[in-house]
């Protein structure tokens, strides 16, 4: 049980760090495409961080599960 909690926290922190990279990219990209991609990176990984800490499937996983 303790190992599972550590894994959940590590995954959540990993996704939060990648969302931070997205914020950096958003601030430093000048092109519209770069900004759009960085927003997608932020949104996807912020959602994954929250879902990991709650131990729920991500929004994308829920949408794909409903489709198929």
Describe the structure.
- By secondary structure, the chain is an all-alpha fold.
- It has three helices and no strands.
- The protein has one domain.
- Helix 1 (2-28) runs antiparallel to helix 2 (32-54).
- The protein starts with a helix and ends with a helix.
Q: What's a quick, concise take on this entry?
A:
The chain is mainly α.
Key words describing this protein structure:
68 residues; 3 helices; single chain; 0% strand; mainly alpha
N-to-C span: 32 Å
User: Measured on Cα atoms, how large is the radius of gyration?
Assistant: 14 Å
Chain-averaged pLDDT: 94
**Unreliable sequence segments:** none
- Give the SSE string: HHH
- Biggest sheet record: none
Count of DSSP E strands? Answer: 0
Helix content: over 70%
Oligomer: single chain
Question: How does the overall form come out from the CA principal axes?
Answer: flat
Number of domain modules:
1
* DSSP summary: helix tally: 3
Briefly note the structural class of the backbone: mainly alpha
Strand content: under 5%
Write the SSE topology.
Layout lengths: L1 H27 L3 H23 L4 H9 L1
Helix pairs in contact: 1-2
């Amino acid at each position: 049980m303790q190992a599972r909690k550590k894994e959940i926290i590590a995954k959540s922190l990993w996704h939060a760090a990648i969302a931070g990279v997205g914020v950096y990219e958003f601030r430093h990209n000048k092109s519209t495409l770069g900004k759009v991609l960085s927003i997608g990176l932020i949104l996807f990984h912020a959602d994954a961080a929250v879902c990991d800490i709650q131990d729920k499937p991500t929004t994308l996983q829920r949408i794909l599960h409903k489709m198929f």
